[in-house]
Amino acid sequence: MSWAVEEWKDGLPGKALQKIQEMEVQLDKLKKERTQKQFQLDSLEAALQKQKQKVSAALGEALFLSSMCAPLNG
């Protein structure tokens, strides 16, 4: 099947083929970079969610302790 994909290049001048090759290499590089950045973003989002859960739990605990101590102070 890959031969059919490459068929459109038949008959193109060498300079054009070279430029196409350079662009294909650049495209592959950009795809790889995008994949790495997406993984990094996903990891950061997961870490953020974990931190939000910790903060929420700590806030809930602080509110609970505050409500338990309020009658003692009043």
TrEMBL record:
It holds the Pfam family CENP-F_N. Residues 1-61 form the Centromere protein Cenp-F N-terminal domain. One of its GO terms (cellular component) is chromosome, centromeric region. Residues 20-61 form a coiled coil. Signal peptide: none annotated. Keywords: Coiled coil. Transmembrane segments: none annotated. InterPro entries: Cenp-F, Centromere_CenpF_N. It comes from the Eukaryota. GO terms for molecular function: dynein complex binding; microtubule binding. GO terms for biological process: metaphase chromosome alignment; mitotic cell cycle; regulation of G2/M transition of mitotic cell cycle. This is Centromere protein Cenp-F N-terminal domain-containing protein. It comes from Cyprinodon variegatus (Sheepshead minnow).
